[in-house]
Amino acid sequence: MVGVRSGPGLKVRRVLDRALAGVPPGREEAYALCYAEGPDFWALLEAAGRLRDRCKGRVVTFSRKVFIPLTNLCRDRCAYCAFVRAPGEPGARTLSPEEALALARAGERVGCKEALFSLGDRPEARYPAYRAWLAGEGYGSTLEYLRAVCALVAERTKLLPHANPGVMTEAEVAALKPYNVSMGLMLETVSERLLRPGLVHHRCPDKVPRVRLRTIAAAGRQQVAFTTGILVGIGETAEERVDSLFAIRELQQAYGHIQEVIIQNFRPKAGTPMADHPAPGLGTMLRTIAIARLILPEMNIQAPPNLAPADYRAYLWAGINDWGGISPLTPDFINPEAPWPKVRELKEVCRAEGFQLRERLAVYPEYVGRPEFIPEGLRAKVLAFTDGSGLVRPELEGPY
What we know:
Blueprint: H1 2-20, H2 27-33, H3 38-56, E1 59-71, H4 97-109, E2 114-119, H5 128-137, H6 142-156, E3 160-164, H7 170-176, E4 182-184, H8 209-221, E5 226-232, H9 238-255, E6 258-265, H10 282-295, E7 301-302, H11 313-318, E8 322-326, H12 343-352, E9 356-360, H13 365-368, H14 379-385
Parallel strand pairs: 1-2, 1-8, 1-9, 2-3, 3-4, 4-5, 5-6, 6-7
């Protein structure tokens, strides 16, 4: 029995030793790490932490943002989503340019540098009345409208837009790039299985994995600093999570544009079809973060602290080096039940664990000095905000 128990442990340790020597785990090895328990689990976290220290140091970053929910109309109805509304439903709303600009200016006044635009996928394809409204305003699509509002914020405030508009063609990515210092689209999962009836992405055309992968690749060809990631706990298997991380790695190897990988935990929300679906446990999250660090050793890896308010300190043990966007002004409109932690709380947690908290822009330091990734009209802003490390100048960081 001793030999049986020690066998998996020896295999895990060999995989971890190779990762620390610069050889990331193969796919089958990463599958096995998903089931690490006991001493193997802690060895996995230790190895991920050591890799993070080696590749990213002991500085943990965040972006001070204002959240601008341009429209919560969407042609998809994901089983976990509480953000989306249909026209006429209570809470359904599309911001006017003036409302979006007012939010951005309010964020500017409290030290924000990022204007995060979130919105539903192509609602005009589902709702004729909304399509007619867009046409009446002079726009052929939601993405055209988004481009105009991003331009307005970029031109009339000091903020740097970062758009999360959903699936895009390469032409649409190119059209948005001049007014966005970075963009994002969560891959969520490469599991085609979750498109089946009764599962989380059924009847969601914009959640087809190959379509999302195509958008991320298009951003790479357009040299857009890009944020992506996976959603943990929506019905995917541990192996499918690993497959998703390998898909992200392949895109990064091809284009070098993925600035950040988010490991985000599902949270059940009242009124959604998945209201009674269990959230992933802390162990699952820590394993996934640690495996992501081993597969993507030099990447910026983030996990949202507001989605694990009692546990997020432990994410540092598993190898993250970023907390994502934190807003001193607006709620997380995607997860309204989950308030942001105070920045001073994050700073204290980092200090207690031996890390320094620093503010970054919506574009990561690795891309600040690469003009091909920074739109010409935004370069002066980026350089004015940043120091030699590519992080926000200490004297410009907002209050802690």
